[in-house]
Design goal:
The complex is a heterodimer. By secondary structure, chain A is of the alpha/beta class. Chain A has 16 helices and nine strands. In chain A, strand 6 and strand 7 form a beta hairpin. The chains are: A alpha/beta, B alpha/beta.
């Protein structure tokens, strides 16, 4: 079976996932790579939680790229229902079919109503991301983005796909997976997900990266920046994350600042005004004020 | 399973995972049967040749919330990670590794942040400075303190910061003013300070681990785990929490506020109601007049008015202050929020909460506000209720909710349930949150039984979890 071979080779262990992700442009660490490998080998969905901007969505994209599988993405929002997530009957086509079939002598409306044959056919089924992921002729990566935004009732609809890899359509019966998709769910933790969902998933908490890894990420994104400066930059970001801010700077903001400094031709943080850095890194005026107060001189001028 | 992780005991690896999961449950983590089985399955395919293979496998299967990660790591260290597995063996010296010059080592750890060196320094410090007494059921706090004192960590951190400040000032501009005046220098120093504190914190953590290893070797993982066992932060009894625990509770409270707000808003919004006939007819145009799509009218939920009356005396105060802060932070959920604090007299403190930011400040400000006028007073529920009724009685209506926080201990003054009854008649609902367990109600000077019949509900509310459950159903 080719799919099994694929899983065996790309996801065989932490090291090969690390290498694969690096090739796809995602710098993972052992923790991330280990869990991805485990999820693939156990065939379980992976629930990724963490602050915004730590690369949750990017991880799923990169895994799809490294495994050379199509990525099917379901962006969740409040009020999404099964007709947007799973499937929907295309009633326009159904109406059209009935109109066309009327002219046919063998057509009997009673028979259609009785058996549902003809109207309820896979031809009239509009597949939405989740159904598409399991019915795809080749193995896929399914990304359910921001799953914490859906209502608790809708969340329950996902369970069948996540655990049994199938979708039950009342008129057709069970539609089973041709290939087990690799499922990633991301959550910004704006509400608690149900126990039922969590039970079916492996869990990965993606926190802000450690200083060392963040330096590597910045160096990877902006290769021309001086090492010294990268170190200062990452140090500053770390300092800001310890403050009590509404929106602490994420990795993408660190990269933004690195790009800004590179464009300005800066060689040292001293050269640039520190308020420039804060305005790139922080998104709220309140946060900038808090940060300026915390970095102000009076706190440490007392020291000898 | 490989030998490294499992040699210390004779029990089977699977049994060990079971006991590990039991300990997690004992600490309050919801590890279900399914997750336990998943843990076993994952352990079977885990990469045990990697340092953290088993840890990764169990973490991904047994932990399902970021709040529980710290507990997991602590217990895992006790059950599966004895010192032998972590230590990197070095050839050459008689006991496997060379002795370090500790002061030099700590300095270079603070400067460069080498984790391996920190580990070695911590282990050696524990060997040298800790007078270990076998068999004592202790958590090792005292040992930790003596090891850190031996390392002179605080002193070296201060020295390191002074050095850094001097270096930055020295390399400053050509002006060479000596101080750290220019903003770039502030920034560099602030960065240095964060890094140094983080490294010191790492070293402290390593010392703690080394001591835990000693304790585990002495008394076994399970006994040590029992000594260290603490409730999860959300289950801490707030009135009895220590200062460190309160800080932890505050930290956990911020995300909870956010989550509660989303949950409550959504619950309100999801109440679908009447059909919007006009929109439905319009939508039916595309299907030849057949109303295939039914459009509902957008629900416009009425936001409740919330009135809070909080006892700020004695041990109840901490809890009341926490609750009021939590409620104030979610003021967007209520169209009107008025907060009263009382010991003897009910005072309107709504603005106090609006002006200060952060729960700590709010608590301090509220304390100051209330006690300033009433030093030496003792709790008088009857009087507070009367004053509350006199102030807001007229504005109460069916959509007003009154929350009362307090232990109903009225210093043997008579209960004035008639006043509460009057409030209850006007308001939509009255909830009484009592920080004492139900068994203690009506003992001593508590007159809870007299007030209870007039409340919509009277519940015990001791922990963050209790509070959260309450607010969720309130919305």
């Amino acid at each position: 079976m080719t799919q099994a071979d694929n899983v065996a080779s790309v996801f065989a262990d932490t090291a090969s996932v690390l290498a694969g992700l690096a090739a796809a442009g995602y710098l993972a660490d052992d923790k991330i790579a280990g869990v991805v490998s485990l999820a693939a080998r156990l065939g379980k969905p992976l629930l990724i939680e963490g602050p915004a901007g730590t690369g949750k969505t990017q991880l799923a994209k990169s895994v799809a790229m490294m495994a050379d599988r199509p990525l099917i993405r379901l962006q969740c929002y409040e009020g999404i229902d099964e007709s947007k997530a799973l499937y929907e009957w295309d009633y326009r086509k159904q109406l059209l079919w009935i109109q066309a079939a009327r002219g046919d002598e063998t057509f009997s409306a009673d028979a259609v109503i009785e058996t549902g044959k003809g109207i309820f056919d896979e031809r009239f089924l509009l597949t939405r991301p989740m159904l598409e992921a399991i019915r795809s002729p080749q193995p896929t990566v399914l990304l359910v983005d921001e799953v914490d935004r859906v209502d608790a009732e809708t969340e329950a609809l996902f369970l069948e796909v996540l655990a049994e890899h199938q979708v039950s359509v009342p008129e057709l019966g069970r539609l089973e997976a041709r290939h087990v998709p690799l499922v990633f769910l991301t959550s910004n933790n704006t509400r608690d997900l149900s126990e039922a969902l969590k039970r079916r998933c492996l869990f990965l908490y993606l926190d802000y990266p450690a200083a060392q890894r963040e330096r590597e990420i910045v160096e990877h994104a902006v290769p021309d920046l001086a090492r010294e400066l990268v170190e200062r930059l990452v140090g500053l970001v770390e300092t800001l994350r310890r403050l009590n801010l509404k929106k602490p700077p994420s990795v993408s903001e660190t990269i933004d600042l690195a790009r800004t400094l590179h464009l300005l031709g800066a060689t040292d943080l001293d050269v640039t005004d520190s308020s420039l850095a804060l305005n790139v890194l922080l998104k709220y005026r309140d946060d900038v004020q808090v940060a300026e107060a915390a970095l102000a001189p009076r706190q440490w001028n007392r020291r000898p | 399973m490989t030998s490294t992780a499992m040699t210390s005991t004779a029990i089977s690896p699977l049994e060990r995972i079971h006991r590990f999961a039991d300990e997690l449950r004992a600490r309050g983590m919801p590890v279900s049967m399914v997750e336990r089985l998943d843990g076993m399955r994952a352990a079977r395919v885990a990469e045990l040749d990697r340092a953290d293979g088993l840890r990764t496998a169990l973490r991904a299967t047994l932990v399902k919330s970021a709040d529980h990660l710290a507990v997991f790591e602590e217990v895992f260290d006790l059950y599966f990670d004895p010192a032998g597995a972590r230590r990197v063996p070095q050839a050459g010296s008689p006991d496997g590794r060379p002795r370090l010059d500790l002061e030099h080592a700590v300095r270079s750890v603070l400067r460069d942040g080498s984790e391996e060196l920190a580990r070695q320094a911590a282990e050696q410090a524990v060997e040298e400075y800790v007078r270990f007494e076998p068999g004592r059921p202790v958590a090792g706090v005292f040992y930790e303190r003596s090891a850190l004192a031996g390392l002179r960590l605080d002193e070296l951190v201060a020295q390191r910061l002074a050095e850094a400040a001097a270096a930055i000032a020295g390399s400053g501009g050509p002006a060479g003013s000596g101080g750290l005046d220019d903003p770039g220098q502030h920034l560099r120093f602030a960065v240095q300070r964060t890094q140094t504190t983080a490294r010191a914190e790492f070293l402290r953590g390593e010392v703690r681990k080394a001591i835990r290893d000693l304790l585990v070797a002495d008394r076994g993982a399970e006994a040590v785990a029992r000594t260290l066992r603490q409730p999860l932060t959300a289950d801490i009894d707030i009135s009895r929490a220590s200062r460190e625990q309160l800080a932890e509770v505050l930290r956990v409270m911020i995300p909870i506020q956010r989550k509660l707000a989303t949950t409550v808003m959504r619950k309100r919004r999801s109440r679908t109601d009447l059909i919007d006939v006009r929109a439905t007819l319009r939508a039916s145009m595309s299907t030849g007049g057949v109303p295939v799509k039914v459009v509902h009218r957008k629900p416009r939920p009425t936001k409740p008015h919330l009135y809070v009356l909080a006892d700020m005396s004695g041990s109840v105060a901490t809890f009341a202050a926490f609750t009021v802060t939590l409620v104030s932070a979610m003021s967007q959920l209520f169209s009107r929020l008025r907060t009263f604090a009382f010991i003897q007299n009910a005072t309107d403190v709504t603005d106090v909460f609006r002006q200060v930011s952060g729960p700590e400040n709010a608590i301090a400000a509220m304390r100051g506000h209330v006690t300033a006028g009433e030093l030496g007073g003792y709790t008088d529920y009857g009087r507070a209720l009367r004053q509350f009724h006199a102030t807001v009685g007229q504005e109460l209506e069916h959509r007003s909710t009154v929350l009362i926080f307090g232990d109903a201990r009225g210093n043997y003054l008579p209960a004035e349930e008639a006043t509460l009854a009057k409030i209850a008649r006007r308001a939509g609902s009255v909830y009484w949150l009592n920080p004492e367990p139900r068994a203690l109600w009506d003992t001593g000077d508590s007159v809870m039984r007299a007030y209870e019949p007039h409340c919509t509900a009277a519940v015990t509310c001791q922990t963050l979890n209790d509070l959260r459950g309450f607010i969720e159903q309130l919305g």
